[in-house]
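Check this.
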Amino acid sequence: MRLVWLVGALALVSPMIAHADTAPWAAGVSDEQKTQAKALLDAGNALLLEKKYVEALDKYTAAVAVWDHPAIRFNMVRCLIQLGRNLEAAENLDRSLKYGAAPLEETVYNEALAYQKLLATQIGDIAISCTQPGVILTLDGQPLATCPAQETRRVLAGPHQIVGNKAGLLPKTVELVVIGGKSSDASITLDPLEKGATIVHRWPTYVPWAVFGGGFAVAAAGGVLAVLGNNDMKTYDKFVDDRCTGNCTPEQLADVAHLKSGGELKGGLGLGLAITGGVAVATGAVMLYLNRGRTVYPEVAPAAGGGMTISLGGSF
């Protein structure tokens, strides 16, 4: 049923073209051009009926190059829709309907209006603006404009990506989801590299402080032990002075011998801890110096196959 209708619709195109001498879409077109366009149209129609859409589209494209008749261009729309090239189909449909119903047979015009409603749900617009001079914009990876600019593009419904890029500024990517029949707006403003800068450290910031503070704690503990050991030794020496006028025998000092051994042990441990803590404090101080903040700025570099990549670079 569809094939019979299509044959009838295609068959009506030729007589309409033949009787369009005074129509605005025929102004300035010679009889020779009309004959040539008619031959290409007929060849395209035959291919279209055979569902050879690519070949038919080539014939129609050649025909409109000779005579841009709305009926021929509408047959291009038929092919483009079959090929899934709906954006191109919508653009050609607008041109086919430029003069309204006059250039088309009624059933063909009604079909064109039905296609227009269908495509309207699958296509939307993106309005893009930018004011920064020299910023280069791309839409879905294709060149769009160099700012300052205001651009409107018709696109298929769905996700789209706008990228702005300029040396010395942070690249910006805007993701949009376009709804069929609706318009989406995007204003692109790039930020200076400094805004994307980060402060990095050789180690996590707590590590040098932990070493530095830990060294102080160990040194302090060593100092406490050294003081305690010294006190024990002083107490032991006092017992010796009180009990002995000369050399004391071990038996005389047996009950206070632990003060001497404890004092010596505490003194030795205290000295060792103090030295270890001092080394740790010095190490922590060096680490604090080496771990001072380093400002890193993004660097934009071209990527293979187009687009860009962002790397990081900076100095202390």
Notes: Strands lie at 123-130, 136-139, 142-146, 149-156, 158-165, 172-178, 183-188, 198-200, 294-302, 308-315. Residues 202 and 291 are 5 Å apart (CA to CA). The mean pLDDT is 81.
